[in-house]
Amino acid sequence: MTKEEFEKRWSQFIKEFNQNFDSPEVSQQLQDVAIQNTDNPEDLKINYEHIYQQQRMDNLVKDAIESFLDFDEN
Predict the structure, then answer these.
(1) Cβ-based neighbour number of residue 34 at 10 Å
(2) 32 partner at 20 to 30 Å CA-CA among 14, 43, 56, 74?
(3) CA distance 14 to 1
(4) How far is Cα of residue 56 from the mean position of the Cα atoms in its chain?
(5) Distance from C-alpha of 63 to C-alpha of 14, rounded to nearest angstrom
(6) What's the confidence (pLDDT) of residue 68?
(7) Are 30 and 56 in contact (CB under 8 A)?
(8) CA pair distance 65, 57, nearest whole angstrom
(9) Is the distance from CB of 63 to CB of 10 less than 8 angstroms?
(10) Which residues contact residue 56 at a Cβ distance below 8 angstroms, ignoring those fewer than 6 apart?
(11) Are 34 and 51 in contact (CB under 8 A)?
């Protein structure tokens, strides 16, 4: 794969990833997790941000590896 091919493939991958991850459904799921794991309501915003960033990074890495290694679906 050339650098140009990689850049094109990455651009498409990250666009699709952003659309999927930043959906209202995912946001609500993360909000629910933050609410369940927050004792002090004043901490809810920071806890949500932490959970959002952690899940985003974990999913981005996993999805990128799966996408670029072209695992067989078998």
Answers:
(1) 19
(2) 14
(3) 18
(4) 3
(5) 10
(6) 87
(7) no
(8) 12
(9) no
(10) 21
(11) yes
Side chain identity at residue 55, one-letter code:
Q
* Residue closest to 50 by CA, chosen among 30, 67, 66: 30
Angle among Cα 41, 18, 35 to the nearest 5 degrees reads: 15
For residues 5 and 8, give the distance between their C-alpha atoms in angstroms, rounded to a whole number.
Answer: 5
Token reading at 47: 């806890």
Residue of 6, 32, 21 lying closest to 58 (CA atoms): 21
Tokens 């459904």 locate to 25
pTM of the model: 0.81
- Residue 74's SS3 state is coil
**pLDDT for 27-67, tens place per residue?**
999 999 999 999 999 999 999 999 999 999 999 999 999 98
